[in-house]
What does this fold into?
Amino acid sequence: MNSSTVLAAAVCGFLLTAAATLVLRRVALRWGIVDRPGGHKSHRRPTPYLGGVAIALGTLVPPIALAGPAVRPVAGILVGALAMALLGLIDDLIPLPPLTRLAVQALAAGVVVVSGVVAPLTGTWLDLLATLVWIAVVTNSFNLLDNMDGALGAVAVVGAALLAAAAFVSGQPALGLLLTALFLSVLGFLPYNWAPAKIFMGDAGSLFIGFVLACSAALLVTGRGPDTAIAGLLLPTFVATVDTGVVVLSRTRAGRSIMQGGTDHLSHRLHKLGLSKRLTALTLAALAAVTGVLDLLMTLRWISPLSASLIGLMAASVLIGLPQRVRVYPSLRAQSSHLARRK
It folds into this structure.
């Protein structure tokens, strides 16, 4: 695969996504496919969905059309990603039961694992199950990260670009092509999603992006050692996984269901500290850049996998615990005192 094919697919992906976003925004407004304000949502007016469909088109169509058989090494990821986009689109239109979503995600992840993508965490058959579960969890983590204008888009642009570089360095041009197309496609969508957003990507976009990035990270560590696998899985998906950790810990401490929505994500906490929505998105993107560069340095063998793993795990521990100091829910003790006073 030559560089001109990669460049052509990237440019086509950018242009296709930008054009499709404009068209799909009008379609969504005409048919009432909008996210209405209310509850913990921060937008103040009905905002159309379907941006994720444009991202999926821009990411999948150009590489397949221009590279053809050359994308066979990532065929499993392409099939699973398409399934995620369709699942997300259906869920945007007709909310699906959680078990249905999880079942489809598991099947899509299973397709990728069967195609040979297995993270070597234990060196046993358990790696098959661990990879499947990890792909599903990280896919949903990116879905949860889509909670503020431009946040997921900014993180995805940086993450896809750096993973693409790691793929090319590792001698996996098909994966590099796919990630480059994703990078430029999200970049073509981002101006419309930048605060204040004119369109949302919806679950069709967030599940698609999360699935591609999760599977790409897993493919890049396939056949390597456990220390490489830990760093190679965590660092490219760091912002999304840490954000999920923050949310789970926060809701558990507050006695809330982890399935219940709320304003307790990293983005909400940064916004509460005084950052604008745009600056919040840029801050999360900067964090993704730091961890993505660290992953690239490991791929280049400029730092050891063990060092990268330790840095990633320690940083994750700090960044999951530290944001808990920004109070978003009353403590269980405060809730008990309030109930006692009411009695």
